[in-house]
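haha ok so turns out i had the wrong file open the whole time. this is the CORRECT one, sorry everyone. sequence first:
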Amino acid sequence: MPTPAPHGIHKRPLLRDDVYNSIRDAIVDGTFGPGERLKDPELEQWLGVSRTPIREALLRLERAGLVKATPGRATIVAPLDPASTVSAQQVVAAMHELAVRLAVPLLGREQLAALTEANGRFAHALEHDDADLALAGDDAFHAVFVRACGNDMVPAVLDQALPLLRRVERRRFSSHAARHSVTAHAEIIRLAGLGDAEGAALATRNNWLSLGAGEQG
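then structure:
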């Protein structure tokens, strides 16, 4: 579809992450479809920034596997590639498994309550077929463990690998296939509450790997 018309998305000069997130989200939600050409002037007009942050964002998106660039030619939204998606899924599953294993011994009542609250928001969003809020709830759930794990490499690796899964995640969150993840999350919470780091870590790994089988991370 065409580049969205300018509508004041950002009221202040964009930081690099703002530009990256805006283009990434437009790819994930289908505003920019697979194979669509991304033109610098149109992106500049849409986001209200100069070419430099646009090019930096596109380079990050290329490393994340969401766009493909040919020197001197077009930059396009990358087609959905099952092999690349599986590779990213394996890395994301491993990182979240590690985060849970490290975090569970450190969790307190506040973090456990945050997990329950996030899963409740996730379930509510799925019931109302709101894929965007479902993604936000799922992110909030897993972020509890990532923040608590104490390993700064985990979010860094996830930032690289997770964007490639977003298009698949969003499609699943738009269907009934994701409902099983509410139960999966509840089991992770139960195991974490018991202090079973290994059990919660393996349940988290299976939750993410089930994405390819029609379920959600």
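The CA atoms of residues 97 and 201 lie 5 Å apart.
again sry for the mixup
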